[in-house]
Amino acid sequence: MRRWRGLGRPGRLRALGLASVAVLLLGSHSALAAPSLVSINIVDTPRPQEKWGYAPGARTVAPGTWVTWSNAGTDAHTVTAEDGSFDSGELDPSQGFSWYFDQPGTYAYVCTLHPWMQGKIIVGNGVSAAPTPTPVPDDSPPPPPDDGSDGTDATNGSD
Ligand SMILES: [Cu+2]
Description:
- The chain is mainly beta.
- Helices cover 0% and strands 30% of the residues.
- The chain has a domain at 33-123: Sandwich (Immunoglobulin-like).
- It starts with 35 loop residues before the first strand and ends in a 36-residue tail after the last strand.
- Mean pLDDT is 78; it is low at 1-30.
- Copper (II) ion (CU) binds at residues 77, 111, 113-114, 117.
């Protein structure tokens, strides 16, 4: 004769709290003339090592941009321009390196410790404003013909 189960279980509470995270931070889009800041992570996970690299591997920025690489991995890495214009040296985990790009051009870089790690920064339209080197006419003489005398010493005894 106990019947105090009348209303039964409390039922499901539908928590609405986190379901409606509004995107409220897009309000202002004022274009300030301040230098831009761009971040790139150096990642060495997951394995295998072939997946190591820079995230993002290619980044287009406007002239007048500071780019900061952060070693988010567990190994030491470098950020070394192929044209030698910048070189971070070895960055230990959690260390970073920044470089200011103010000239249009395409700047390819690698990790000298792991040469398969490659990235590039494309500044502006990616074309260097510097005068392009005049192509050297290819008037070098052809290699000398091979006369076949390679000096092989065939001492192939008598018979
Ligand atoms: Cu590396």
